[in-house]
Amino acid sequence: MARTARGGKGPAKSSAKEILRDEKVLRCLEHRKLGLTWDKVAQLEGYATPSGPYKAVMKYLQENRSDAVDEFRATQDTLLDEMSAVFVGDALNPTAELRYEASDQMLKIMERRAKLHGLDTKNLQLGGPNGEDLTLAVVLARGLELMKGDDGSD
User: Fold this and answer.
1) Which pTM was predicted?
2) Which of 122, 152, 115, 120 is nearest to 137 (CA)?
3) Using an 8 Å Cβ cutoff, are 134 and 125 in contact?
4) Would the CA dihedral through 35, 39, 45, 51 be positive or negative?
5) 11 - beta bridge partners?
């Protein structure tokens, strides 16, 4: 998929420096798809700390659409699905001994998935059933109300 300029308007106007940075980030994505840790990716690509490649990749994921990004997201989604399968049974079982620990792990997995797909932003706008704009926080609050059995109608 073709890359767009920052802000998504028109074709990208990339300098040689930006192209080299993007290539480095794509190499980081490839390393992660192969299962390397962020620490190892940092060593291979010359970052001072593991947070360097992590932040570069997350920024790239938020700003760009490409086959490499889509493939990385799919790989990470599969991993998150496998992790979820470990905890979901206990998280949903009211009599499970480790219910709260499993629920905590499920929430962390859900947060990670939201971040991976750019849904973690506080100001994300969603369309409501009546055409009104809803922030993600409002949608989540309404979902919690429904889970508790309070649909907001009196």
Assistant:
1) 0.47
2) 122
3) yes
4) positive
5) 4
Q: Are 69 and 60 in contact (CB under 8 A)?
A: yes
Cβ neighbours for 123, distance < 8 A, ≥ 6 positions apart: 135
How many angstroms separate the Cα of 103 from the Cα of each of 30, 86, 92, 140, 143? 31, 11, 8, 17, 17
Q: Which residue has the tokens 């291979």?
A: 44
106 neighbors 88 (Cβ within 8 angstroms): yes
Helix (H) or strand (E) holding 17: helix 16-33
Q: What is the DSSP track for 51-116?
A: HHHHHHHHHHHHH---HHHHHHHHHHHHHHHHHHHHHHHHHH-TT-TTHHHHHHHHHHHHHHHHHH
> Per-residue pLDDT tens for 116-149?
877 766 545 555 556 565 565 666 666 666 666 6
Are the beta carbons of 125 and 133 closer than 8 angstroms? yes
